[in-house]
Design a protein that fits this description.
Shape: globular
InterPro entries: AAA+_ATPase, P-loop_NTPase, T2SS/T4SS_dom
CATH superfamily of the largest domain: P-loop containing nucleotide triphosphate hydrolases
Pfam families: T2SSE (PF00437)
CATH class of the largest domain: Alpha Beta
Bound molecules: zinc ion
Number of helices: 14
Keywords: ATP-binding, Nucleotide-binding, Plasmid
Structural class: alpha/beta
Number of domains: 2
Helix content: 25-40%
Family: Belongs to the GSP E family.
Protein name: AAA+ ATPase domain-containing protein
Mean pLDDT: 90
Order of helices and strands: HHEEEHEEEHEHEEHEHEHHEEHEEHHHH
Oligomer: single chain
Number of strands: 15
């Protein structure tokens, strides 16, 4: 760093050591926990410090504060479901609202317009990134609905090694990400974990010698080395992407392809020496090709620039302590083989059955489930797939996919997890339907 070819230059006082600078920037600021600011707010401050610490401990994704008739309901979203943890006296509501607004530097008097803000909460050994959304729920703005999305900085920004998937899938995805040019798409409905997988792909590529850029709405995870640009009314995704194409980047993450213009520029980037990563709302890898066609991308461009399409769902995993072995009924076996087209492996007859949930739960879980598991269908664009895409032949795409060793249709991937004891059999049967 700062290697100079000759002597002490006239600009030497401008040079800094980025390592020391970074260390300075990471010293936690004392105000990153809630502290008393007004008379009588001590208990609310203690409660806020407790609830965000508890949210991190329980791996909650969101903290909800909803004003009801005369009381405030505090809920956490854990493994996709909301759970009411506390019911507070209404007198706490205004203090909670004031403290959260103060933390995000939001106006205390704006009671009608929806407000967005964010703050960092100090967990002691790491930071919690909290994104706050506030909206008044009555005519006077007295009652509020406050939702805080919490992102544990200690868990985020991982790589694809941190995402549970079969090793054949991981290896095929890693190969696709090694390309210097093309596009990798992650598809699925809202709440399917696409963003986590997309950032894991970016995390895999995060190296000092790479220029990473992201266009997002809003910025989901902060990356130290990436240039992250937020979409707003003055600059939409196409405007940001056009500017990026003049910024000599290696890898670009586009939050979501939602329109024809964004799709066209993303594919332009993918065809001109850049690695593009993005998400799309579609159900399966095959329907993604149709959706891209609807956006006006011609089949030849889709075939030539697409590296891989990853379709994903997220389901609640079985508790490892109380899961129950399960042998499907005759009718279910018939459906499995003839309707789902699932080939039951030989190990099944040797005493390795499917699994089901123990709804009663045990001391380690609430209801027989613990955590969530991604179910992944990965289509790699090889020669056969490219030819099928160019011919706009969905049947041929599906046929080419089944020849790929890592390819498992969503429902088959889910049934594999049930055999492995990670997913309930009946939940697996419904995946991808
Ligand atoms: Zn259990």
């Amino acid at each position: 760093m700062n290697k100079l070819r000759e002597g002490v230059p006239a600009f030497h006082s401008l040079l800094i050591d980025p390592v020391k600078q970074r260390a300075r920037a990471h010293v936690p600021k004392p105000a990153t926990r809630f502290s008393s600011a007004w008379r009588g707010d001590d208990e609310v401050v203690a409660f806020l410090n407790h609830i965000f610490t508890e949210a991190a401990a329980l791996c909650a994704s969101d903290v909800h504060f909803h004003d009801r008739d005369g009381w405030t309901e505090v809920r956490l979203r854990i493994d996709g479901d909301l759970k009411t943890l506390y019911c507070l006296d209404q007198s706490a509501s205004r203090f909670i609202d004031d403290h959260l607004r103060a933390k995000c530097s939001l106006s205390p008097s704006e009671r009608q317009m929806p407000l967005d803000g964010r703050f960092r909460f100090d967990l002691g050994d790491r930071m919690l990134d909290v994104r706050v959304s506030i909206i008044g729920t009555d005519a006077h703005g007295d009652a509020q609905s406050i939702v805080c999305r919490v992102i544990d900085a200690g868990l985020g920004n991982g790589t694809i090694d941190d995402i549970e998937m079969p090793s054949s899938t991981r290896n095929a995805l890693a190969v696709a990400l090694q390309a210097t040019e093309g596009i990798v798409l992650v598809v699925g409905p809202t709440g399917s974990g696409k963003t986590t997988t997309l950032y894991a792909c970016l995390g895999t590529l995060d190296r000092p010698e790479k220029h990473l850029v992201t266009a997002e709405d809003p910025v989901e995870r902060r990356l130290e080395r990436a240039n992250q640009v937020i979409k707003n009314p003055q600059r939409n995704f196409p405007t940001i992407l056009r500017a990026f194409l003049r910024q000599d980047f290696d890898v670009c993450l586009v939050g979501e392809i939602r329109d024809a213009e964004t799709a066209a520029i993303a594919y332009q980037g993918a065809n001109t020496g850049h690695l593009m990563l993005s998400t799309l709302h579609s159900k399966t890898t095959a329907s993604t090709v149709t959706r891209l066609g609807d956006f006006g991308i011609d089949p030849y461009t889709i075939g030539s620039a697409t590296l891989a399409i990853l379709a994903q769902r997220l389901e609640r995993a079985l508790c490892p302590h109380c899961k129950v072995e399960y042998y499907p009924t005759e009718g279910e076996l018939h459906t499995l083989e003839h309707e789902a087209g699932y080939v039951i492996p030989a190990s099944y007859d040797d005493g390795a059955p499917f699994h089901k949930c123990n709804e009663a739960g045990c001391e380690h879980c609430r209801d027989g489930r613990k955590g969530r598991i991604p179910i992944i269908e990965l289509l790699v664009a090889d020669d056969a797939v490219r030819a099928a895409i160019a011919c706009k032949d969905p049947g041929a795409i599906a046929e080419a996919a089944t020849l790929q060793p890592q390819f498992r249709a969503l429902q088959h991937a889910a049934l594999d997890w049930s055999l492995a004891g990670r997913l309930d059999f009946h939940t697996a049967m419904k995946v991808g339907k």
